[in-house]
From TrEMBL, chains A, D:
Protein name per Swiss-Prot or TrEMBL: Dihydroorotate dehydrogenase electron transfer subunit
Cofactor note: Binds 1 [2Fe-2S] cluster per subunit.
A single GO BP: pyrimidine nucleotide biosynthetic process
Alphabetical list of PROSITE patterns matching this protein: FAD_FR (PS51384)
Keywords: 2Fe-2S, Electron transport, FAD, Flavoprotein, Iron, Iron-sulfur, Metal-binding, Transport
Family: Belongs to the PyrK family.
Coiled coil: none
A GO molecular function held by the record: metal ion binding
A Pfam short name: DHODB_Fe-S_bind
Binding residues annotated for [2Fe-2S] cluster, in chain numbering: C199, C204, C207, C219
Domain of life: Archaea
Domain FAD-binding FR-type: 1-94
Entry cofactors: [2Fe-2S] cluster
From TrEMBL, chains B, C:
Annotated catalytic residues: C131 (nucleophile)
UniProtKB keywords: Cytoplasm, Flavoprotein, FMN, Oxidoreductase, Pyrimidine biosynthesis
Residues that bind FMN: S22, K46, T47, N128, K165, G217, G243, G244, G265, T266
Residues holding substrate: K46, N70, S71, I72, G73, L74, N128
Lineage: Archaea, Methanobacteriati, Methanobacteriota, Thermococci, Thermococcales
Protein known as: Dihydroorotate dehydrogenase
Gene: pyrD
Length: 235, 309, 309, 235
């Protein structure tokens, strides 16, 4: 694994941006791909995080604090060492219809891969809708970026509500976020799934998701799937 | 000034003692970009059952302090799929291949043993008597009589070396181990995941759908190590030590307790480069201690330690 | 807006479910400057044997990832010393006192049971059937018949509630648990340290003089939790859950699995303030979930979880 | 436990000085007393370290890297949080003959409590002999402090060798260091022992040492003992 030194952090409550200096290269990371990030001791599992942005061995992640590893990242002083490997998973661009434009629908930390997508493929982006619960999230984003935020606390609307106003058949949807959000999207949407992962490379069979074509692996076959292919009851 | 890491067991020469445990690396192919198989002693392939299995509903993995609880449920293509799709590709893996099978009835064991015996690339057969993740099934290795029956059946069907994979969390592992060896096992794998669970405090429900799963990782190391030690004290057969080996120190501990081969499960799942790191560490340790071959440290904890030699 | 943390079990009202496990806190006196005993549910005193024991030669403790392996060897003043020097001071400890005894023969159990019965400050007697640290002695709790015998003897001698402390690392804990209850135990403690070892790679020898010791700490939590869950599924007696409880989440997990009382061993040894921190955490959890009493969460993992209620 | 933030470190190979800012008070720490120091997760045990010096909630420890916790302290970035409690154990001053002067005989990290002793009770110190193997240790000490160092690599003498030249019956010996060193001291020496500890306060019985008066506890009855009282074979 590659050593990754925590260089910068910017936190607002349970969300934060974390920039790591890598002592090695990520090879041509694409949007939708993720890294497996590991702390030096606890937890012992490496866990998946989508690439928010990557440049010159500087990797930025957008992380929601939910448990042990994310908790540790939040409380680490600058200079703390982590380990990463990747990029793993398939680039979104390899799985979607390349002729379309897309509305990027993000919920919470699901915004991470969508940001990287819009950095790498700006011409394919029709609109960005990034949903969050609380206004506190604003302070993490620049004024320009804030235009894409849909904050429930302020507008009493979710991204799905707003999506209804802009959506039309010829535009694709590329979404990443919590399951309840994904379930409310049109059937043809591309949805980026999460699952508990062990290896991140397709060997351990931890990240199973049931589809109409049988059990698939989020890390090896995804993370992006057509919404209509997923057997949601299994999740 | 090289040290000799090779071991001869089961009439086979392993280039070094580090092998991949069954499961976490599947059939190994996806791991090839990350690990040069010519550097490791062997791979034990994912356990194969008679019928294809889609595995348990998610979540299939949850971690705890020092460990990982898995509940994969033996997702595999079944023996037919294995013979047709996997077996022909096995020669791509440049190391010794150990096949792993698990039957749910004596008839199933019989077919599985027969089919595995036929595959040329498979040099050794591991019989998985201890999978903790199958709904409604007790583990064979909890019971000496069942262990005996299964080993005897497989023994009849193959001339290849067979290894019984035992559960670490039984009252008396020596009893089960003796039974397996008396029934014809050429060696033992100790151990598999220990039955374990976590509860989601927010919902009040077990996190895993089958409630319990198998705990591996450094948390269980001292427990499984003690089982290897006790078994080796009582029996002189080759043992594959598996359970929480994360670094070269852990590997050496297992060797000193009596294991000839050292299997990595969680470690290689977390970090595909772990085997290489561990092999380097073992080598450096032996060099520092001026011990010319790995063989010399196997079981030394039973023989007065390192300084006696 | 208080939540009710009290539990009624064994006909006794405990002010809250957090108790101190036998051993790490000795007889409690040295802990008094660091912990206000009036804040905890109970203390289980260090196990007392018939004769005084000086304990095992050092090292008596070694840590591993997520755990601590101890090999104290029941250092204690013997029952006479206990009756004369410790018992008269017990009222200084402002909480419920559970006495713990361990005999090495049926005669010893008899004397120990009798003597403990006489001590007024001792409200409950725990019979330690599972100490992993005594040279040459098997653990009683590995064997259903021995468990039965011991419980029956002690049962005859006392009208106080008796609790059988079982080993977590047995093949079938439900069998042993049932036997203990049928023989007259009013409750069960699950569990004790799991047999475990470490080897010093520099010397090639086991670190502990008795080779193995008892592993406690968060490493074993998912294993012992599964045993509590299985036992509660099969039996309706009060269970004291002990094994790796380090924070309020661990405590709640044990309660949801079916434990009425929650014992801290390693946690309180590492940090004498742990009990207070954990009690506060449980309280805050119940408040957040709007659950008015701790009682309500005991065993919910068997009854559809929190949302059903 | 008290939060302890790593504020400063000065390392030379396997030895180092580490200064922590405490978010709470140690009550009147005395030389010979130790703190139990714990990392935020691994290892889960708190482990004993003698107080090297303490002033205004600034605690300095002198640590040798030998294993997991000490390894973690060495590799921690400034700002890392630890937890401590103490002071535990008996002050040397309470256990020794108060009328004498003492030669302080230290070996390796055993120098820590002796330094604190000489800070607090300078008039009781007759001489300081601090033994180390390698010259690299010099860079951790000021020129003045270096006068007390006896470095095997340089002088081919151990502290015990040098002690023979200065020792006379009426002067006491107060020693802390590795067991082989302690065993070579005069019978009447006071020796500060180490043992694997669990609680540090006398409850768990982990730190047993056998003496002519039975089994004693390093944390509760020590750490200082008369050399002649110890049954060394048991250790
Ligand atoms: C492909 C992929 C990309 C991801 N990208 C990001 C990202 O960019 N930013 C981000 O903040 N998170 C991302 N995640 C989720 C992230 O992996 C988890 O939040 C993380 O593993 C939690 O680790 P923890 O140790 O903090 O939590 P834990 O202590 O393990 O668990 C805390 C809680 O979170 C739940 N949980 C843990 N892991 C997952 C998971 N993988 N999926 C669903 N629920 C989980 C647990 O059930 C538990 O309730 C991604 C997940 C996947 C699969
Ligand atoms: C009263 C007291 C005061 C101490 N003061 C200092 C001090 O000021 N500076 C300092 O550097 N160290 C001191 N020590 C020793 C220190 O506690 C150990 O070095 C530390 O616990 C090692 O932790 P670890 O996790 O790094 O090593 P581990 O990973 O636990 O072990 C590494 C190696 O060290 C050995 N070891 C571990 N702990 C001890 C121990 N307590 N005694 C003897 N051998 C041990 C182990 O057997 C192993 O071989 C003191 C010990 C005691 C009892
Ligand atoms: C994801 C996963 C899948 C596993 N699948 C199998 C399996 O199919 N057959 C088997 O014998 N063991 C299986 N195991 C058990 C491992 O081979 C190993 O015995 C166990 O994990 C303990 O080793 P560790 O601590 O190194 O992980 C699996 C373990 C994991 C983590
Ligand atoms: C230092 C130490 C001493 C112990 N002594 C006893 C004992 O005398 N009697 C007993 O029943 N259990 C004893 N135990 C076991 C604990 O009571 C407890 O069951 C075990 O440590 C698991 O809990 P934990 O993970 O919270 O430590 C001891 C444990 C430790 C660490
Ligand atoms: S995480 Fe291992 S197969 Fe996907
Ligand atoms: S460390 Fe617990 S008694 Fe000394």
């Amino acid at each position: 694994m590659i050593e990754a030194e925590l260089k910068e952090k910017k936190i607002s409550k349970d969300y934060g941006f974390f920039t790591f200096k890598l002592y090695g290269d990520l090879e041509n990371p694409e949007a939708g791909q993720f890294v497996m990030l590991k702390a030096s001791d606890e937890p012992i599992l490496a866990k998946p995080f989508s690439i928010y942005s990557y440049k010159n061995r500087e990797l930025t992640l957008f992380i929601k604090r939910v448990g042990r590893l994310t908790g540790k990242i939040f409380s680490s002083p600058i200079g703390e060492m982590f380990y990463i490997r990747g990029p793993h998973g398939n680039p979104y661009i390899d799985l979607i219809d390349g002729e379309k434009q897309y509305i990027l629908v993000g919920g919470g930390s699901g915004v991470a891969p969508l940001n990287f997508f819009s950095e790498l493929h700006p011409a394919m982006v029709y609109e960005k809708l990034y949903g969050f619960k609380g206004s506190y999230i604003r302070e993490l984003f620049t004024e320009k970026e804030q235009k894409n935020l849909i904050i429930e606390e302020e507008s009493e609307k979710t991204v799905v509500d707003v999506l209804k106003d802009v959506y039309s058949e010829e535009i694709g949807i590329l979404a990443c976020g919590p399951v309840p959000m994904l379930k409310n999207l049109p059937a043809t949407s591309y949805v980026s799934l999460e699952a508990m992962m062990g290896c991140g490379i397709g060997t351990c069979k931890s990240c199973a998701v049931k589809t109409k074509k049988g059990v698939k692996l989020v890390c090896k076959n995804g993370p992006l799937f057509r919404k209509e292919e997923i057997i949601w009851e299994w999740i | 000034m090289g040290v000799d890491l090779s071991i001869d067991v089961f009439g086979i020469k392993f280039r070094n003692p580090i092998i991949l445990a069954s499961g976490p690396v599947g059939f190994g192919f996806e791991l090839m970009p990350y690990l040069d198989f010519s550097n490791i002693g062997a791979i034990t392939l994912k356990t194969v059952t008679l019928k294809p299995r889609e595995g348990n509903p998610p979540p299939r993995l949850v971690d705890s302090h020092g460990g990982v609880i898995n509940s994969i449920g033996l997702q595999n293509p079944g023996i037919e799929g294995f013979v047709e799709e996997i077996a022909p590709r096995l020669k791509e893996l440049k190391t010794i291949k150990i096949g792993s099978i698990a039957g749910f009835s004596m008839d199933e064991w019989e077919i599985l043993g027969e089919e595995m015996d036929k595959i040329k690339e498979i040099k050794i057969i591991e019989i998985n008597l201890s999978c903790p993740n199958v709904k409604g099934k007790r583990r064979w290795a909890e019971d000496a009589k069942l262990t005996e029956k299964v080993v005897k059946i497989v023994r009849k069907l193959t001339g290849k070396p067979i290894i019984a994979k035992l559960a670490p969390d039984v009252t008396d592992i020596v009893e089960i181990a003796k039974t397996a060896v008396d029934a014809g096992a050429d060696g033992l794998t100790i151990g598999n995941g220990a039955q374990a669970m976590r509860i989601d405090v927010e919902t009040g429900l077990p996190i895993l759908k089958l409630k319990t799963g198998g705990l591996g990782g450094p948390a269980v190391k001292p427990i499984t190590l003690a089982k290897v030690f006790k078994t080796r004290e009582a029996l002189d057969v080759p043992i594959i030590g598996i359970g929480g080996i994360m670094n070269w120190q852990d590997a050496i501990e297992y060797a000193m307790a009596g294991a000839s081969l050292l299997g990595l499960g969680t470690a290689v799942m977390v970090d595909p480069e772990a085997p290489v790191r561990i092999i380097e560490g073992i080598k450096a340790f032996l060099e520092r201690k001026k011990i010319e071959s790995f063989n010399k440290i196997i079981g030394v904890a039973h023989k007065g330690g390192l300084n006696v030699h």
